[in-house]
Structures are given as structure tokens and as C-alpha cells.
Amino acid sequence: MTSPMHNGLPPAPPATRPRHGALAVRLLAWGLALGGALLAGCSTMAPTTGDVVADMARPAAHWKESAPEGWVRTTDESLQGLWQQQRWWPLFGDAQLDALMERVEVGNQNIAQAAASVAQAQALLQQSQAQRWPTLGLQAGGSRSGDPARGSATLGLAASWAPDLWGRVGAQVQAQQAAVQASEADLAGARLAAQASLAQGYFALREADAELLLMDEIIAGYTRSLQITDNRYRAGVAAHTDLLQAQTTLENARATRAGLQRTRALTEHALALLVGEPPAQFTLASAPWVRTAPQLPLLLPSELLLRRPDVAASERDVAAANAGIGVARAAWFPSVNLSAGLGGAAASAGELLSAPVLAWSLGASLAQTLLDAGARDAAVQQAVAAQQAASARYRQTALGAMGEVEDQLSTLRTLERQIAHQGSAADAAAGAEQRMLNSYEAGLSDYTSVVTAQASTLSARRSLMQLQLQQQQAVVALVQALGGGWQAPWAQQ
């Protein structure tokens, strides 16, 4: 089977040509070296992003909302170790939460998808970088017929290279490097989102456990009240309506407990999906609720811009769009291609390897678009508009991040006061309930007053637990708004 020769290789040369093989190799090396020198001397046509980034990183150096009492400042060293390592969840002091976080890193499919996107971006970067280097190809072929004298064999080695004289390939590489870093920030964002969702769901489950224990306690108390009321009714001291009210209160509490069990089951299913397991294979036994709301270091907005994943990804999008301007501008300049070849042809493979039949060739080509009806100018305008849009998205993302921090600081400060007031209300309601029950047993009040006091106590105690849950979840939301820690690899790059 015959394989044709490409790249303009000449036919078999006369026997005197092989002495020029060394010259061909020297000329090929000289041509590549010249192209390398031209490549080293070229500069990118993309504008700098330094001014844009600096302009976006100049917000006020303080937050409008003050931090809750007892929180550490950025100058304090306490609690900084875990925070610097992006391991913020141990600050809550819950060993089971720590174990679940390790499972999220391994099993969460959103994290796995983001990690695959990083690998894909890195592969595209390698493809872009490969355009900076020459390509080398080997071609060989042979044919045979009934007449041995009419056989042929060919062998060729061809190299080509398009030096990046105007920085087009360099701008493409810069854009893809920024895309890799943006995908790394997206991975960090997916990881932080999964961790935050797990922590908030875990605290909701533990709060449901605490409410279930409360309802067990309440149901036991309502059962005793029903027994007391039934005894008084049988003795003719209490009315039948008192007995019915006691039964209604008890059954309502049992219905509330059943609803809490449903809420806990759904929360457990959601946690199973976060760690990448089917709900049927995932179970969290009831355990005490660690109601710690840890102290966290507060950060400055300028530090936030360098670390929060979505802000970092937006900044890298600006860099990629900036490099896209350089790619579009480079299209206005001619492209140069260098080629070299070494090969030959003979009647047989043996002659091809032994006979002096090799020939070399060198070539260069220049291509320039003279008229395109404004297509290149439109491409530059499109790239500039894309950079402006990316810059606006970056600014809006940074502003949104600061707004989220302010929201959570305000929420935590308000919740701190609410919890203090609600705790006092729960204590007062419990005291009033006990007095009403004692008064009813002594025959000094009706059972309606007891039911009202019991309902008030239950509502106050559940409201206190729910506020404590909101406080923990707001701390997690603040951690997410702050980016999850002090340092991040995509910011350091």
C-alpha cells in the first residue's frame, strides 16, 4: 500500500545530495532558534487588569453592622489555626459533625463534578500551551507489484511551527490559565456550599432531636395531668369538659411529636445526599445537641475579595476576558509558519536505508487578511464588551458578598438579643404553668387556665430552641459569606 509524501518533499534526489543532510539539520535548528527569538521578543496585546482589580478592592475597611459580643478581631491570634486551614466546623465542638465533613469531601457529587471541571480546564490549558511548540511528523510507505523492479518505498520527516509573533497563543494560554483558576475557585465554592449545607442540616436534625426530647417530657407531663383530671372527674370534683380538654392537649402534643419525627426523617435524607449515600443506607442516631455558637474572626472587605470563591472566580473571568482582547487584536497581524522536511524514496526499503537518497527542504509562509468587511474590528469590540461585562459582574459579586456579610452580622446581633429575651420568657412561662397546675389541684382555678399555661410554656421553649438553631445556622452562613477561611490556593496563584 502506498502512502503519499506531504509538506512539499521533493522526489528522490541524485546520489550527490546526501552530503547536505547535516546542512539541513543545521538550517532547521537555525530556523527554529530564529523563531524562538522572535517569540521571546513579542508582547501580549491584552490590556492589564491591575487597575480594574485595584479599583474593585477599595471598599471601606470596616463593616456597617457590628459583630456580636465576644467575637475575635482580625488582630487576635485565638481560634486562628483552624480558620486559616479552612476547617471552621471544629469550632462548633461536635465530633459527629467533624466526621460527616470528611465524608462530604469524599462522597459529595457536586464536589466531584466541580473537580472534574478543574481537570477538564487543566487539559485545555495543556492543549493551549502545546500550540507554542513545533509539530513533528513521520511518514512512511511502500508498494510492491509483480515486477520486483517496479517496487517503491518512501520515508519522510516533517516539522512545522507557527511562532507566536503577536502574542495570540500567549493570550489564549493566559485566558485558559485564568479559566483553570476560576474552575478551582468554583470547586472551592462547591466544597464550601456542601459543607455549609451539611452543617446547617446537621444542626436542624439535632434541634429536632432536642424538640423530640422536649415533646417526650411534655407528653409525660400532659399524661400525668390527664390522669389527675380523670381522677378528679371520677370523684365528681372536675367537670367532663376538663377531662376533654386534658385529652385534647395530650393528643395535640402527640401530633406535634409525629410532625417533628417527619421533619427529622426528611432532614436525615438530605444529609445522606450531601455525603453521597442513598438515604436507605444512612442513619444518624439521636444525640445531644451541642448548642455552641463559636467565636469567629472578622475579616476586612479587601481580604474577602481575595478569598471568597465566587468573588475569586469572577475576578479570574475578568482576566480571561482581558486575554480575549489580546487574541482578537492579534488577528490584525499576519501569521507566519515555518516548515522543514527530510525524506526520500527508493525502489525498496533496503535501498532507502542504505542508499544516499535523502533530501531536505525548508520553507516559510506568511498569511495576512486584507479585507474582511469589518469582522476583525467587530471581534475586538465584542472582546472589549465581554471584558466590560465581566468587570461589572465582578463588581456586583463583590458587592453582593459584602451585603451577605452585613446581613449575617445583623442577624446574629439581633438573634443574640432575641435568645436572651426568649430564655427569660420560657422561664417565666414554666413558672406560671406550675403555679396554675398547683392552683387547679387545690381547686382554686379551672382547667382552662392550666391548658393555656401549658401551651404558653411549650411555645416559649420551642421558640427558644428554634432561635438557637437560627443562631448556629447564621454563624454557618457568615462563614460561607466570608469564604470559609483566611487563605485559598486560587487567590495565591
| Spatial shape | elongated
Largest sheet: 4 strands, antiparallel
- Averaged pLDDT: 79
Strand order of the largest sheet: 1-2-3-4
Count of DSSP-assigned helices: 13
Number of strands: 4
Enumerate the spans where pLDDT stays under 50 for 5 or more consecutive residues.
1-42
Approximate helicity band: 55-70%
C-alpha-based Rg, rounded: 38 Å
Structural class, by secondary structure, is: alpha+beta
Order of helices and strands: HHHHHEEHHHHEHEHHH
- Strand percentage lies at 5-15%
How far apart are the first and last residues' alpha carbons, in Å? Answer: 53 Å
Give a verbal description of the structure:
- The two termini are 53 Å apart.
- With 493 residues, the protein is an alpha+beta fold.
- The protein has a four-stranded antiparallel β-sheet.
- It has helices spanning 21-41, 50-56, 80-84, 95-107, 109-130, 168-234, 240-274, 301-307, 309-330, 349-354, 375-441, 447-481, 489-492, and strands at 135-143, 152-161, 335-346, 358-367.
- The protein has 13 helices and four strands.
- Strand 1 and strand 2 (152-161) form a beta hairpin.
Describe, in short, the structure shown.
The chain has 493 residues and is an alpha+beta fold.
Q: Which short descriptors sum up this protein?
A:
single chain, 493 residues, disordered N terminus, four-stranded antiparallel sheet, alpha+beta
Helices and strands, with pairings:
Blueprint: H1 21-41, H2 50-56, H3 80-84, H4 95-107, H5 109-130, E1 135-143, E2 152-161, H6 168-234, H7 240-274, H8 301-307, H9 309-330, E3 335-346, H10 349-354, E4 358-367, H11 375-441, H12 447-481, H13 489-492
Antiparallel strand pairs: 1-2, 2-3, 3-4
Helix pairs in contact: 4-6, 5-6, 6-7, 6-9, 6-12, 7-12, 9-11, 11-12
